[in-house]
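Entry:
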Amino acid sequence: MAGRWLDVGDAAQELGISTDAVRKRISRGSLRSDRENGHVRVWLDDGRTEAGREAQVESGALVEVLQDHITDLRTQLEAEREARRRADTIIAQLTQANAALAARVPELEAAESHEETAEGAAEETERAEPHSNVVEAQEGAVRPWWRRVFGG
């Protein structure tokens, strides 16, 4: 087994990880180490460490798992996009309904003020005419018998 002994700092640099990560791997036993003269030395074999072999997974299986995950995420994304489209449609419909109602408000206010004016004029007419005339005008040609007999 060809390899070399390195101190913790050099091993970390070689592996592309921090010195703390190297120390953790040593404590877990995934990196072979030895203590010489108070210094910890780590064994690295030709670019492939024990930790690297331990962490290695079959790439085909990993790719397949990741592709399944991507497919699931795409499905979720499409469902969210569809929900967003529906929400946008509802918002647009409510906005149009609100705009239509806002356009009718002046129209409704004008009709309401016209009705108030007409009611005010009718009240003025009632005040100006005697009550009996108003009743006769309301009843028209058909008067109750008691009015014809007793008058009024």
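The chain has a mean pLDDT of 79.
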